[in-house]
Design goal:
The complex is a heterodimer. Chain A is globular, with a radius of gyration of 23 Å. Chain A is built from 17 helices and twelve strands. The N and C termini of chain A lie far apart (about 85 Å). Chain B is of the alpha/beta class. Chain B contains eleven helices and eight strands. An eight-stranded mixed sheet of chain B has the order 1-2-4-3-5-6-7-8, with helices on both faces. Classes of the chains: A alpha/beta, B alpha/beta.
Amino acid sequence: MSDKKIPSPKTYKFDTLSLHAGYQPHKNAGSRQVPIYQTTSYLFDDVDHAAALFNLERGGHIYSRISNPTVGVLEERVASLEGGTAALATSSGMSAIFLAVMTLCEAGDHLVVSSQLYGGTVNLFRLTLPKFGIKCTFVKPRDTKGFKKAIQKNTKGIFGELVGNPGNEIMNMPEIAKIAHEAGIPLMVDATYQTPYLCKPFEHGADIVIHSLTKWMAGHGSSMAGILVEGGKFDWMQNDKFPTMTKPYEGYHGLSFAEEFGPTAFTMKARAEGMRDFGPCLSPQNAWNVLQGIETLSVRMKKHCSNAEEMVKYLLGHESVAWVSHPSVPDHPDHELAKQLLPNGRGSMIAFGIKGGKDAGVEFINNVKLASHLANVGDTRTLVIHPASGTHSQMDEATLKFAGLSHDMIRLSVGIEDIDDIKNDFEIGFRAARKPRLVSNQ
Amino acid sequence: MKFKVNGHEVFASTGGRPFDKNKPLIIFVHGSGLTHMTWVLQTRYFAFHGYSVLALDMPGHGLSSGYSLKSIEDMADWVSNVIDAVGYKEASLVGHSQGCLVTIECTSRYPNKIKTLSLMGGAGAIPMNPELLALAENNDPKAVDLMMDWAHGPAGHFGGHPVPGLYHINTGGMLAKSRTIKDTLGVDFRACDNYKNGFEAAKKIKIPTLSILATDDKMCPVKEGKKLADLIKGSKVDIIDNCGHMMLLEEADRVLKVLKNFIIINYPAKNI
């Protein structure tokens, strides 16, 4: 190293990583595009090579349930964008959450979980995980002290959506991370709504980040995929809470994941154990589709966010709208926190209440033409749903209330169409929604 | 495994296999501010193929207790003490970057103890840029970011880790930030900068020696590595194209293949 003046680090930045990270063309026949390795398995050079791969002596691929080169590019790309050490892609966001929990917990363990979650996630924590002996205590996302109170001796982690689905309540991630770390447990954050373009949870204390890549990351409504990403800072050896990370593991000749792999231990265990035993692998075709989406992530997210802000203004001034929830609204309870955590934009999910309640909501949904009524978010196209009768319909009345849902709520995922066309479409929906009320008033 | 040297607890990875005193010993010495984990794609192979392996966390680094040693000479003596502490009379040494300075000095001081020497990204001297040194000594994370930038070749900057899903630069950065930067990287950089005996030490080495160098290594360029290798009689040199200073991760398989061929011939294990 010479005595020259020091420049700033020249590691690649977000937009460049979105296009290039995780892939070297010269190692892939010069193919500029990431090849789709549509294969189940990989030739071993010899018996010694096979043994080396199975023993984790060398890196490489054995069987596409465990890893695949196309999926591997996606994993590295998302890890690079998040500022993480490693990532593991799965067949869906739900399987990523399940894999994260099963990597962390055993029967008899406990998790503290934010109450405002996607309905499927609520059911996983409330009904399914207890069948595996893993219990959960739900805490409202704004009740930061409640997270601390809910921690028990056998608590192995805190889980939440950074911005809750569908009510847009924001977890105070830095404060909740402190609570988790004081208790010697990791904070797991589902940051699907944000993507790393809007927020990098590792910079705010999260230890594991989960995405449903199906949404904004892939962005085009074509492919299911999920991913868990490891921050690499959490010290698994600081206490005796995580013996499956720190003690010799029988499944790999007495390997201690924490000792051997340190900042990538969680991902290594999730892959070596979880993908081997549960097998929620991502298809290489879907990985490739997601990679196409990520190439334009920042371009799309800018448009999603600017359209969302326009829609917020439009809805706030509309006679048919009772209330609007979006972190950009100054009277949103988390407006200031959103400025801190989401500096590049507040996201494109809006919840609003339609005057006339449930019946008006149904009419609105049934009459919009451009906006698609479906159970997804984060498509390039504008999407709408009535959670109480759709995504969260499996919840009883009390659970709906605890999750912050109301019968008049419409969940809107703002797309990147021309903003005037979205507004015009909503006018059609609102006109239809007003009709039954006018009739009943006569 | 954990053991004590000079009254302080030392952690060393045994490559995922139990430490067995009946097998020949290979000791891996990491670079500035890093830990035993940089060696994971080399150590496990040897541990499963007839060797006892110790990938050390130097004092004050990784999972080892105590304080970082302030000179390369002290580190060289400490590595010799490790060999004694685990009940061996001899060992084969493998070093990366600063670990090369340590293992060169150790080999020259204890010629009867060291049986082979393997150097990766090594040079006879590693003078530090004063501003980088100041950043590290002032606990500035920019020192780590710069080190990760320079330590990876152009190809390595894109990723392509041999272990699926791992991202080189962030993993290396996290290792270097796992303890207080000024107490690890800062002390190590100063020790490298102060060390002037590399070329003289190299002249005394008479054992089989291997240098693995990389064409895109900005931290210990090929010409510096060759200058060092030329001073060691019979030294073998292997140069990896399209690779930077973190060759043990960027081109882990190539490094393992070269290292394996060298050690198996010059320090054979019974069970291969």
